[in-house]
Amino acid sequence: MTGASRGIGRGIALGLGEAGATVYVTGRTLTGRSAHMPFLSGSLEHTAQEVTELGGLGIAVQCDHTDDAQTRAVVDRIRQEHGRLDVLVNNVWGGYEGLHIWDERGEKWNAPFWEQPTSIWDDMFASGVRAHYVTSQCAAPLLIEARGLLVGISFFAATRHQDTEGIPYFLAKTATDRMALAMANHLHPHGVTSVSLYPGLVRTEGILRAPEGAFDLSNSESPQFIGRAVAALASDPNVFGRTGQVLVAAELGDRYGFTDTDGKRPRSLRSEWEG
User: Fold this and answer.
1) What are phi and psi of 233, to 5 degrees?
2) How far apart, in Å, are the Cα atoms of 104 and each of 117, 122, 130, 169?
3) Does the annotation mark 169 as catalytic?
4) Which domains does the chain have, with CATH numbers?
5) Which of 133, 169, 198, 256 is catalytic?
6) How far apart, in whole angstroms, are the C-alpha atoms of residue 88 and residue 90?
7) Largest CB tally within 10 Å, which of 8, 64, 261, 271?
């Protein structure tokens, strides 16, 4: 489970922990607060502890997934210590950092592409798309041995470009979806399932810090909800029939019958983005 110090990654780890899984959680913040975003709480050790408290086994491994050597070392450790990898969830994403610290990247988030700093592109493709690709490369042999599940976390921004969405954001999410399909094609002979998975509006630490009224949270999700979606997919004996697809957590809730932590079942945002 990559990018699991906080936010959606933490929530996915907890969802897998509920299901009794051994979860290796990776990210840059091992303890305390992030050096990159010190105003956001969350650490790998805390996530791992919560996974264990929920009935799984959480193992915290510090890793900057923009460093290929660190990524390879994590996968090698999993092979040595655990001997198998049933599910890989690629969640690393640096694209929102400028919004959280509100530097030039945040100020130019909705500007025309020629006015945006190139670092917005670099954040999304280095800390998002490339990190997903390299982690998948390293983990593929283990997934093949287990006939496992590969999940890339994406978003509805990939479905169409809106006036208010930057081109790097649109292209990074589109690339994540297309990568899931391309990897599904390569992994199909080996029985490995590869999908892209969309959350809805998630009540992450960053979203909850936003000014009051900035987001309509009436149809929002806890981070753990998408974790329950991943757990449902991992436990589905027929999941291979979904390989190459783009899936929506809320729609999986309807299909598999799981709810959010508050007992509610969020609605899919598909109609709002694709209508």
Assistant:
1) -65, -45
2) 7, 14, 23, 16
3) yes
4) 7-274 (3.40.50.720)
5) 169
6) 6
7) 8
